[in-house]
Write a structure and sequence with these properties.
Rossmann fold; globular; alpha/beta; two-stranded antiparallel sheet; 7 strands
Length: 128
């Protein structure tokens, strides 16, 4: 599993730089060579419109702005994604209540396991 992300394109939407740097390190360890990042809803939507991604991580709250518009765009493009949040209760509603959530701080192993699940069985999320 050490090369889980070899040849994969990953989008990371995160507004905390220290958290982002850690995620990038984990992704590099997993063999990822193509990581795109965004810190705002606007940046994320522009990236989703401009290129294709295999998987994404999405912070629930981007500097006070909910990221559900980004989740909608990822879902409409068929990109499997995981939410991340610093809140104990992310308050996900509607179509996203059953999506995977990593609560910060999370272990690198939890991130790896979640991404592996998304990449090996993305169809499981189609009905959610």
């Amino acid at each position: 599993m050490s090369k889980l992300l070899s040849g994969r394109s990953v989008l990371v939407i995160e507004d905390e730089m220290m958290v982002l740097w850690n995620i990038e390190d984990v992704l590099a360890d997993l063999g990822c060579t193509e990581v795109s990042t965004a810190a705002t809803v606007h940046q994320a939507l522009a990236l989703i419109d401009a290129q294709a991604f295999d998987v994404a991580m999405l912070d629930v709250n981007l500097d006070g702005e909910p990221s559900y518009a980004v989740a909608d765009a990822l879902a409409s493009h068929g990109v499997p994604f995981v939410f991340s949040t610093g809140f104990s209760d992310p308050g996900l509603g509607g179509n996203y209540r059953d999506r995977p959530v990593l609560t910060k701080p999370y272990r690198d192993e939890d991130l790896t396991e979640t991404l592996a699940g998304l990449l090996t069985n993305p169809a499981a999320l189609d009905s959610q």
